[in-house]
């Protein structure tokens, strides 16, 4: 059996180093040994500022140059929210910039409780995104309309789109009623990358509590109580693992150090998962 660590690629998610520019994030990723990086092009929350990279041609060129210089690739770009009044044509600039950066995937959130409309809007945006060589990765989150893995896969399947996929975030997986059996049963064609972090067994289950933890109090993989080893073992052995660990205490450290800590932590978990698989 070949070691998983030789087949894995790792991505540095935006939230882990949200305080640095895209160019800095790419340089940090390269220095640490990440093959990929995640970038945010659109705000995720109402009070969040706009991101210059969406409209600043100079910054786009500088980011392209950093990617070329380092060999780091853009794994995913954030974030598209499927709301009841969603209109994919409003996001053409987002798609164009994503394509210019060579991005592979778009992080999608489902914020529409009317299932059929959500499926139709998702399918239509998948079709549009395909023109820009991008997949649409639907992330389930307990406080959104798409609360668990089963529902996310249902939407992805019903969309009928080849570039439709489910995005598993270990925190949301742990806080939803999703199961490892569902992960194992998920077709590899419906999964492109997975976000990893850790968390405590006891937490505030309210929407506000879940959001607060997700955006500012995640733990370094292996430092909490989520069974990440079992999750890693349930995943395809070559799937990209992304470090998404926003943490207010950790944010006091330099971004490079944060990125290093999380990559090393995930690699250690992969090694343990591999050892368990061999022993089993």
Automatic annotation (TrEMBL):
Q: Which keywords are on file for this protein?
A: Isomerase
Per the database entry, which stretches of residues form a coiled coil? none
The record's section on InterPro entries has:
IolE/XylAMocC-like, Xyl_isomerase-like_sf, Xyl_isomerase-like_TIM-brl
Does the UniProt entry include the keyword Transcription regulation?
no
Tree of life domain? Bacteria
Specify whether Cell division is a keyword of the entry. no
PANTHER family per record: BLL3656 PROTEIN, HYDROXYPYRUVATE ISOMERASE
Record-given protein name: Sugar phosphate isomerase/epimerase
Q: Top-down, what is the taxonomic lineage of the species of origin?
A: Bacteria, Pseudomonadati, Pseudomonadota, Gammaproteobacteria, Moraxellales
């Amino acid at each position: 059996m070949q070691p998983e660590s030789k087949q894995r690629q790792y991505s540095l998610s935006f939230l882990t180093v949200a305080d640095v520019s895209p160019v800095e994030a790419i340089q940090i990723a390269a220095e640490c040994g990440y093959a990929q990086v995640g970038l945010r092009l659109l705000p995720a929350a109402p009070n969040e500022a706009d991101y210059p990279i969406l409209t600043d041609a100079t910054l786009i060129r500088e980011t392209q140059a950093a990617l070329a210089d380092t060999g780091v690739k853009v794994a995913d770009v954030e974030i598209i929210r499927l709301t009841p009044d969603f209109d994919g044509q409003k996001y053409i600039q987002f798609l164009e910039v994503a394509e210019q950066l060579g991005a592979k995937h778009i992080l999608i959130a489902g914020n529409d409780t009317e299932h059929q409309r959500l499926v139709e809007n998702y399918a239509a945006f998948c079709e549009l995104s395909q023109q820009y060589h991008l997949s649409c990765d639907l992330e389930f989150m307990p406080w959104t309309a798409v609360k668990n893995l089963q529902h996310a896969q249902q939407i992805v399947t019903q969309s009928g789109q080849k570039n439709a996929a489910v995005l598993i975030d270990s925190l949301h997986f742990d806080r939803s009623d999703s199961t490892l059996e569902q992960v194992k049963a998920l077709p590899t064609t419906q999964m492109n990358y997975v976000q990893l972090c850790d968390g405590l067994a006891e937490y505030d289950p309210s929407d506000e509590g879940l959001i607060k933890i997700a955006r500012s109090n995640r733990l370094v993989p292996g430092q909490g109580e989520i069974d990440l080893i079992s999750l890693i073992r349930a995943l395809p052995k070559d799937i990209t693992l992304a470090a998404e660990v926003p943490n207010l205490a950790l944010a006091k450290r330099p971004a490079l150090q944060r990125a290093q800590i999380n990559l090393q932590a995930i690699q250690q978990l992969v090694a343990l998962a591999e050892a368990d698989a061999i022993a089993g």
